Amino acid sequence: MKVAILCGSVYGTAEEVARNAKQLLTDAGFEVLLNPRATLADVQAFAPDAFLAVTSTTGMGELPDSLMPLYSQIRDQLPAPWRGLPGAVIALGDSSYGDTYCGGGEQMRELFAELGVQEVQPMLRLDASETVTPETDSELWLGELIRVLKP
Ligand SMILES: Cc1cc2nc3c(=O)[nH]c(=O)nc-3n(C[C@H](O)[C@H](O)[C@H](O)COP(=O)(O)O)c2cc1C
C-alpha cells in the first residue's frame, strides 16, 4: 500500500515529524512518498492509496509557503481517482495563537473533504507551547493510523 505524505513546514519541525512518520510507515511495510517539493504530477505518478498531511501553521492560521504550490494545484484539479481514499492529518501549531491554532491542518482537512478523501482518524494537534518532542508525541497516533490502514 502506498502512502503519500503531504508536508508543509517553515522552520523544519513538521518536516522532522513527517520524516519520522515515513520511517514508521516504511518499517510497517508501506511504500511512502515524502518530497517536500513534490508537484501534483509527482503525487499522481506515485498513485497513492492513502494520504497523510503533516503541516505546521504560519501567519494567521495559514499553510506554510512550502506547501502552497502543491495545495493550490490539488485544489484546482481535485483528481478524481483520489476520491474515497483514506487520509489523516497531523497539525503542528501553537495554542497561544488562539483562534488560528492549527489552522494549517484545518485547511488540509478541508482540502481532503473537497477531494472526497475520507479522514480515518481525528486530526492530531501538536502544540509547540506544550511539547518540544513532536516526533515522539506523534508515534502513538501513527501506530493507530498504521493499524487502520493495514490491509
Ligand atoms: C510567524 C509565525 C506564525 C505562526 N502562526 C501560527 C498560527 O496562526 N497558528 C498556530 O497554531 N501556530 C502558529 N505558529 C506556530 C507554528 O505553527 C509552530 O511553532 C510549529 O511547530 C512550527 O513548525 P515548523 O517548524 O514546521 O514550521 C506560528 C509560528 C510563527 C513563527
From TrEMBL:
Q: Which residues form a coiled coil?
A: none
- The protein's required cofactors: FMN
Give me the segments passing through the membrane: none
Q: Which residues form the Flavodoxin-like domain?
A: 3-146
Q: Which InterPro entries match?
A: Flavodoxin/NO_synth, Flavoprotein-like_sf
UniProt keyword list: Flavoprotein, FMN
Q: Does the keyword Flavoprotein apply?
A: yes
What name does the UniProt record give this protein? Flavodoxin
* Origin species: Pseudomonas weihenstephanensis
